[in-house]
Specification:
single chain; two-stranded antiparallel ribbon; 2 helices; 2 strands; 11% strand; cell membrane; LapA_dom; membrane; Probable lipopolysaccharide assembly protein A; cell inner membrane
Length: 90
C-alpha cells in the first residue's frame, strides 16, 4: 500500500511538472527592492517551495516545543509519584 502511495505522488509530481513546463509565459515580478522578468512556472514553483519550507519550519518548531513540554511534564510526574510513594511508606 505504501508503494502505491509513493508511485501516485511521483506520478502527480510528474504531471504537474509537465503541465508547468508548458506554461512558459514571462511575467514581470515586482518584489521589495527590485523587479525581474521570470517564467511563470518558475515563479510559481519557487513561491510554492518557499511556502512549504516556511510551513515546515513553523509547525516543526511548534511540534518540538510541545514535545519538550511533554517531556518536562512526564519528568515532573515521575518525580512527584516517587515522592508520594516514599511518603506513603513512612
Amino acid at each position: 500500500m505504501k508503494i502505491i502511495k509513493i508511485v501516485a505522488v511521483i506520478a502527480l509530481f510528474l504531471i504537474a511538472l509537465a503541465l508547468g513546463s508548458q506554461n512558459q509565459t514571462i511575467v514581470n515580478f515586482n518584489y521589495l527592492l527590485a523587479q525581474g522578468d521570470f517564467h511563470l512556472s518558475t515563479l510559481l514553483g519557487v513561491v510554492f517551495v518557499s511556502g512549504f519550507v516556511l510551513a515546515w519550519i513553523v509547525f516543526g518548531s511548534m511540534h518540538m516545543k510541545s514535545q519538550l513540554q511533554i517531556h518536562r511534564l512526564k519528568k515532573k510526574l515521575n518525580k512527584q509519584s516517587k515522592q508520594v510513594a516514599v511518603e506513603s511508606k513512612a
